[in-house]
Amino acid sequence: MSAVIDERFRGPLDARLSWMNEPARWSLEDALVIRTDAETDFWQRTHYGFRADNGHFLSAEWTGDFTMETRVRFAPVHQYDQAGLMVRFSEDEWLKASVEFEPEGPARLGAVVTRGGYSDWSTQDFPREQREIELRVRREHATFIVEWRSVWAEWTQLRVAPLQGGAVARVGVYACSPKGEGLEARFENLRIA
């Protein structure tokens, strides 16, 4: 088990955190503020046929079971703008949980699980006008439990999925904009224990 990370994004980043696909614009403003680059995403093959592995991901290496939580405020601009949590073993095996913006109708609260280089996507409606959410991912051996809540509400299960990537994973927060740039995601914290 790794040592607890309790990042509040008020000073220098915890030295264990590092970027994959660092965004051109990010800052620490009593939150980690990511302003996404255009045409960034994490997705592998299924349905749409394309492969994307260039979303912005700030993560730490973690060994064994964990509980990871964040609170994120988001100001989306384009369809599919998204921000949330990610667990990654490789390009072909990972999980992400986020809110994804839809300009018409409700947004999508969802979890993408990628195994063997193919992504699947489970979703549920999320109020388009709501701009803050808390997300949690728990690892129990090879099982990953994704939960969400509105601030101060009870946790609600979104997904349970297996991943076989091994003992060590990269875990942290991510944001991306598959279409145009400009989503602003404000992560207030990242706790991994």
Number of strands: 17
CATH architecture: Sandwich
N→C terminal distance = 9 Å
| CATH class category label | Mainly Beta
Alpha-beta classification: mainly beta
Question: Could you please say which CATH topology applies here?
Answer: Jelly Rolls
Q: How large is the count of helical segments? A: 0
- Please tell me the overall pLDDT: 95
Give the overall form.
globular
What do these coordinates show?
This protein is mainly beta. The protein has a single domain (5-192), classed as Jelly Rolls, CATH 2.60.120. Helix content is 0%, strand content 59%. The chain contains no helices and 17 strands. The chain has strands spanning 5-7, 18-20, 25-28, 32-35, 42-44, 51-53, 56-63, 66-75, 82-90, 93-100, 107-115, 118-126, 132-140, 143-149, 156-162, 168-176, 184-192. The strands form three sheets. Strands 1, 3, 4, 8, 13, 14, 15 and 17 form an eight-stranded antiparallel sheet that branches. Strands 2-7-16-9-10-11-12 form a seven-stranded antiparallel sheet, with no helix packed on it. A hairpin with a 2-residue loop joins strand 9 (82-90) and strand 10. The model has no long low-confidence stretch (mean pLDDT 95).
